[in-house]
Amino acid sequence: MSRKLFGTDGIRGQANSNPMTAEIAMKVGMAAGHLFKNGDHRHRVVIGKDTRLSGYVIESALVSGFTSVGMDVFQLGPMPTPAVAMLTRSLRADLGVMISASHNPYQDNGIKIFDREGFKLSDEIEVEIEQLVMGDTSELLAPPDAMGRAKRIDGVFDRYIEYAKRTLHRHIRLDDLKVVIDCAHGAAYRVAPQSLWELGAEVTALGVTPDGFNINSNCGSTSPDALCRKVRQVGADIGIALDGDADRVIIVDERGTIIDGDQLLAAIAEAWTADDRLVGNGVVATVMSNLGLERFLNGIGLQLVRTPVGDRYVVERMRAEGYNLGGEQSGHIVMTDYTTTGDGLVTALQILGVVITSGKPVSEVCKRFDPVPQLTKSVATNGARPLENESVTAIIEQNRLRLGNQGRLLIRPSGTEPVIRVMAEGDDETLVASVVGDIVDALESASVHA
Asked: What's the whole-model pTM score?
């Protein structure tokens, strides 16, 4: 099943270039609106966005597409991706749409679509949308008396803040905690600091002055250096780094040390197991999660279930097999007791809940295992297909044999960028570096000479 528009996390690309043009966005709105109209009731879609300049163009185009096929549109303005998923359910909408390219720079943008339950669409439905987009969309247009209306919804910030706060037990407060939060000049720049302050924390906020261009620029979960410095400077108990749409989080402990999503999964899984809250006797994560996480979970009687890269595949597995905790090393953590997609703020609150109830510092709560040496490098393909080159595949197989049973090797095309990612891990750090280097050299050579 081939998809041309959708990747592992919706549609994504450079703004004002294929596929992120106003024309395609409008047709996506028409196609998705047409597919999700069932029955004679008034149908509605919720649309949120992050703070990129191009969000205005994409939002207007989507509104045109949805209303032209007879859907009413509720516009939320800048809101986190998990807030859009939550409000889709709360407002009884038929669809939810988030306009964001997540952790990418401002030049990019994207479209993520949620069903009425707040879950990302399946591959099959995305293919149906693509087929409609590529066809004659004029056939989807509603008659003049059945066109939709659009309006902006007030009070959505307060609704999401209350929702996030209620994921903590009512007796937990963050009084006397110093928290530094970096919102990446993105979608959570208002709601995340406010939520922490209302719970009693002393909050220092970074990345809360978006200008349309500075989203994810030397800040947020992909660039946490400034957060680490600020945590040490003000003597904070914890640092929280969100990405542009706030569906992922990276934690910084009181020493200024970065803690990734694998450690967060381990900490939450251990705490939930002790409280008899973990369902399924395991955790769902992707093939990118560190082998150290798997060994830690096995050591406390839990299993690690792996999926392809992409939080949507993690969620699909969780739903299919009944798990309530899953996520990615990058910081997408999904807790289906509370959310239907990754939620950086709610994840941070869960960690803070463990910190408060245990009385231990973040460095102790979140350091659950020593990660196995792991190295990931990206190779730009420049339009070539080096993985189809026989000499490249031979070198990959040779290095797979070198690692043997003492490690893992993963080579995959990115679902969001024109690159191939090479990841190796194992107990021998020198061997891991050598394996990745050999494969990267082969891929680069094949791409240049293609």
From this structure: 0.91
